[in-house]
Amino acid sequence: MSLDGKVAIVTGSGRGLGLAYAQELARRGAHVVVNDVDADATAEAVATIEASGGRAVGVTAPVGPTETAKELVDTALAAFGRLDALVTNAGVLRDTVLWKMSDDDFDTVVTVHLRGTFTTVREAVRHMRQAGEGGRIICIGSPTGQRGTFGQTNYAAAKAGIVGMVRTWALELKRAGITANTVVPVAATAMTATVPYFAAAVRAEADGEPMPAFFRHDLGFGTVDDVAGLVAFLASDAAAKVTGQVIGVGGDRLQIWTHPEAALTAYREGGWTYDALVEAWPTTFDGATQSVGERFPELPARFQPATP
């Protein structure tokens, strides 16, 4: 199945993962609205798509405000006459530990990721429901939103919030034939390039060499193009029955994340008092508590960063 005749908006698509999504959608036949806060990045992304035979237009504006959401949808309709898919990828980072995080650090990240996802999806869905032809909502999450990461209170909150919204939208939009899913990418980007654990993989890609199998297979860590195929699939008619899912992808690995379920359920007549919990916790509940943070296997010696 191709995406011929479909129209997609991809926020934050001037470079990196967002650009890979836009290029893959165009390669599959979709017309694309490219978005970035950098006018040069927007123009260059549009040019690369057109140079490959695709069709694209650009909108240079920050994601978050309702005005930007309206401009994105209006541009899709003015340029291509319809809107079939939205990929909410735009994001920023302001990493620091909780006790050093400023209000601006928190608000900036939540505004772009969480509010930006909300405003653009709301505007897209208003049109899709009125058009009556269904649609595809694809929101970009993160392992941080699933497991937590040290120093990313703001980012974790935003990405976890996106997953919660997507589950709700899958329920609300089902009757209209609009699917909503979250993609959790793991890929070599400007962000992961600064992490020593991934240095060997990032260096291999930069040198045009195959990424080592340890990263691609064991870690599920690959290139931006490894993620783009899933985004295009979810935008297609082939994924018409896939909704409300959180799907991780990277390298050679694809994962469907579980939805939260109770790990243990126990009952006590009269309820769980303080004294009852003190007595029962070590034997009844302690073994069911859940881990936090991402868990990586030990990095093989040959991939260890060189020490100065």
Automatic annotation (TrEMBL):
It comes from the Bacteria. Keywords: Oxidoreductase. GO terms for molecular function: oxidoreductase activity. PROSITE patterns: ADH_SHORT. Residues 6-194 form the Ketoreductase domain. It holds the Pfam family adh_short. InterPro entries: KR_dom, NAD(P)-bd_dom_sf, Peroxisomal_Beta-Oxidation, Sc_DH/Rdtase_CS, SDR_fam. This is Dehydrogenase. Belongs to the short-chain dehydrogenases/reductases (SDR) family. PANTHER family: DEHYDROGENASES, SHORT CHAIN, SCP2 DOMAIN-CONTAINING PROTEIN.
